[in-house]
Design a protein that fits this description.
Elements lengths: L11 H23 L6 H11 L1 H7 L4 H11 L17 E4 L3 E5 L5 E5 L5 E6 L9 E6 L4 E5 L5 H8 L7 H8 L5 E7 L21
Antiparallel strand pairs: 1-2, 2-3, 4-5, 4-7, 5-6
Helix pairs in contact: 1-2, 3-4
Length: 209
C-alpha cells in the first residue's frame, strides 16, 4: 500500500502562486507606494500573512486560506475560528474498539481491524504548507488506511495508537518535524508486541481507556 491511491493534490499548484502574490506581492507594492526600502518586506510579509487570515478566508476561500491554516498547524497552533485544514479535514476517521475506518472526500471507505494492523508508518513530503505533507499509514494484510494529518477525528486515532505496545514516541516526534520526503516506522507488530505485561496476550486499546 502506498500514497498512489490517495486523491491527487491538484489544488497545490493553485495555492502556491496565489499565496505568494497575496503574502509577498502586497507588501512589496506597499513599500514602493510609501517609498521605504524593499528589505522591509522581510518584516512586513510574515506579519501581513498572520494578521490578514480572515481576509484571505473571506475573499479567496479554498486558496490562500488553507495555506495559512496549514502554517499554523505545522507550528503547533490552530487558527480559530477560520476553520480546519483543507482538504485534510474532509477525510473522516472513525475509531471503535474493533477497527479504524476512513472515509475520503470522494466517498471511498478504507477500513482495517485493530488486530490486522501490522505496521504504522508516517510518510512526509516537502509540499507543506501549500498541500498535505504528512500521512499516517496503517498497514494490514492486503488492506489498510492512508490518513492525512489534520483529518477529522485524527486526534482520537492518535490517542489509541499511542496505547499500542512499544509505540515509538521519539520517532513520531521526528516524523512530525520532517519537511522532506521520508518514511518513519512508528510501530510494528512482532512477537514482543503481541504479548502484554506478564506474558498475557495484548488486547487492542479500547475507547475511553
Amino acid at each position: 500500500m502506498n500514497l498512489q491511491s490517495a486523491p491527487p493534490n491538484w489544488h497545490a499548484a493553485v495555492n502556491f502562486p496565489v499565496a505568494l502574490v497575496w503574502i509577498v506581492g502586497i507588501p512589496v507594492a506597499a513599500c514602493c507606494l510609501i517609498q521605504i526600502p524593499l528589505w522591509w518586506v522581510i518584516l512586513i510579509a510574515p506579519i501581513w500573512a498572520l494578521l490578514t487570515g480572515r481576509i484571505t478566508d473571506r475573499w479567496l476561500p479554498g486558496l490562500t486560506g488553507p495555506v495559512i491554516d496549514r502554517v499554523f498547524h505545522m507550528v503547533g497552533g490552530e487558527r480559530k475560528p477560520y476553520g480546519p485544514l483543507k482538504p485534510e479535514s474532509d477525510y473522516v476517521v472513525e475509531v471503535s474498539d474493533s477497527c479504524v475506518r476512513t472515509t475520503r472526500p470522494d466517498g471511498t471507505v478504507e477500513e482495517i481491524m485493530w488486530d490486522e494492523i501490522s505496521r504504522f508508518d508516517i510518510e512526509t513530503n516537502s509540499l507543506g504548507p501549500f498541500a498535505p505533507d504528512v500521512f499516517w499509514i496503517l498497514h494490514g494484510d492486503g488492506r489498510g488506511c492512508i490518513i492525512p494529518q489534520g483529518a477529522t477525528g485524527d486526534g482520537k486515532l492518535l490517542e489509541r495508537l499511542q496505547q499500542l505496545p512499544n509505540f515509538n514516541s521519539e520517532k513520531f516526534m521526528e516524523a512530525m518535524a520532517s519537511t522532506s520526503e521520508a518514511t518513519f516506522e512508528i510501530w510494528r507488530k512482532n512477537n514482543n508486541t503481541e504479548q502484554g505485561v506478564g506474558g498475557q496476550p495484548a488486547t487492542p486499546p479500547r475507547v475511553g481507556d
